[in-house]
Structure formats: structure tokens, C-alpha cells
Automatic annotation (TrEMBL):
Gene name for this UniProt entry: grpE
UniProt subunit comment: Homodimer.
Keyword match Metal-binding: no
Gene Ontology molecular function terms on file: adenyl-nucleotide exchange factor activity; protein homodimerization activity; protein-folding chaperone binding; unfolded protein binding
Subcellular locations according to the entry: Cytoplasm
Protein name as catalogued: Protein GrpE
PROSITE patterns xref list: GRPE
Keyword annotations from UniProtKB, A to Z: Chaperone, Coiled coil, Cytoplasm, Stress response
Length: 243
């Protein structure tokens, strides 16, 4: 008989402590809890371990584990969402293109306005130069008339100069404002200098002191006129009564 068997027969309590009621051996800690309970996992540990592999799959795949029909609907929603995101991205690109086009159009229009303004100024300058070039010829004729010998009849030369001047004004679409005697006064085209006793009806033009001018329907200078008060008619009537 071995020494181990002799020790067990000598210390039966020790043999009972090392054995479980069913005859199997088990490790017991100081608190009397079985070591297998320490190896048990908590619910949180179970959820975390279960959620880790699911992070690598899409939502539809995860739902399919529980409901195949719902997984199909989720997949359809995800597909529509992807299409919407694609359309939104395309529209954002289109908006950027339109904004760039608008910026270019604004810049082109601004440059066009600048060019149009410069062109208008150039046309005005050329028109002024042309008018001055023609008007100085009238001055030349007046100077030549004054340079004639004293006592010479300069009237024909002056009349010719006036005709040339009128021709130049007509070419520039300038017309004279010279109302007829007895015509109604037009406040937009006539400047009344004074009211005088005249044979004309009251409130009508008695005399044109200085003609006016208009260009293409726009008044450049009003004609200066005197207006009749109609006093002569009353005077004639008094003279007739006295006789």
C-alpha cells in the first residue's frame, strides 16, 4: 500500500474537503465562491461582443437577421437615399456652374457699359468737332466781310453768311422758333419779356424780340416775345366816341 493511501486513511477530513458531493474536484476561493462564476460574462459584455461584428455590415444586413421583409424596405430606403444624395451633389455642381456663369455675365455687362459709354463719348466728340469745323467757316466769312474797304456794301456778304449758317443748323436738325405776330403764347417755347399796348388780341404775341431754337423737338433756347394787352383797341374806341 502506498504512502498516499495511508495519509488519506489517517486524515479523512482532508480528503472530503478536496472532493465535491458528486465525487469531482473543484477549486474554491477564499470567499467560498466557485471559480466558474468568475468566468461568467455580464449582459453588457455580451452586447458589446455581439455589436462589434455588426458594425462592419450595412443596416439592411443587420435587420435581415431579425426580419427579412423589413430588411428589404430598409434596403429600398437606403437606395433612394443614395440616389437623393447623388442628385443633390449634381445640383450643387449645377448651382456652382450657374453662379460662375452669372458672375461672368455681370462682368461682361459691366465691360459692355464701359465700352458703350466710351463709344458715346467718342461719337459726341466727333460730332462736336465736325460742327465746330463747319461753324468756323461762317466766322471766316464774317471776318472777310469786315475786312472790306470802308464804304463798301457788305450786306450781300452778310446775307450769304447767314444763309450758310442756317444751312448748317438745318443739317444738325436745328430749327428756328419764331412765332407769328398775333399767335398764342406757348410758355414751353416762348419767354415773355413784357406786356405792351398793341393791335393784336390780348394775350397774343405782339413782337418777336429774339428768335429761339429747338433741336429734334427739344427746345434749346426759348423765343423772347412781347405780349399784347389789347390796349390799342380801347384807345381806338375812345377816339371814335370823341369824334
Amino acid at each position: 500500500m502506498s504512502e498516499e493511501s495511508s495519509e488519506r486513511r489517517a486524515n479523512p477530513a482532508t480528503a472530503d474537503d478536496d472532493a465535491t458531493p458528486d465525487g469531482t474536484d473543484s477549486d474554491v476561493d477564499q470567499d467560498g465562491q466557485v471559480g466558474d462564476e468568475e468566468a461568467a460574462t455580464t449582459p453588457e459584455d455580451t452586447d458589446e461582443s455581439a455589436g462589434s461584428p455588426a458594425d462592419d455590415t450595412d443596416l439592411a444586413s443587420r435587420v435581415e437577421e431579425y426580419d427579412a421583409d423589413l430588411a428589404g424596405e430598409v434596403a429600398a430606403v437606403e437606395s433612394r437615399l443614395a440616389e437623393a444624395e447623388s442628385e443633390l451633389e449634381a445640383k450643387d455642381e449645377r448651382i456652382d456652374e450657374l453662379e460662375d456663369a452669372l458672375a461672368r455675365s455681370k462682368a461682361d455687362f459691366k465691360n459692355y457699359k464701359k465700352r458703350a459709354k466710351r463709344r458715346e463719348e467718342e461719337i459726341r466728340e466727333r460730332a462736336t468737332e465736325d460742327f465746330v469745323g463747319r461753324i468756323v467757316s461762317v466766322r471766316d466769312n464774317l471776318v472777310r466781310a469786315l475786312e472790306q474797304e470802308e464804304g463798301a456794301d457788305i450786306r450781300p456778304g452778310v446775307e450769304s453768311t447767314v444763309e450758310e449758317f442756317d444751312r448748317i443748323l438745318a443739317e444738325e436738325n436745328v430749327s428756328e422758333i419764331s412765332p407769328e405776330i398775333g399767335a398764342d403764347v406757348d410758355p414751353t417755347r416762348h419767354e415773355v419779356l413784357m406786356r405792351v399796348d398793341a393791335d393784336q388780341p390780348e394775350g397774343t404775341v405782339a413782337e418777336v424780340y429774339r428768335p429761339g431754337y429747338e433741336m429734334a423737338g427739344s427746345v434749346i433756347r426759348e423765343a423772347q416775345v412781347t405780349v399784347s394787352e389789347g390796349g390799342s383797341d380801347d384807345g381806338d374806341a375812345d377816339d371814335g366816341n370823341e369824334s
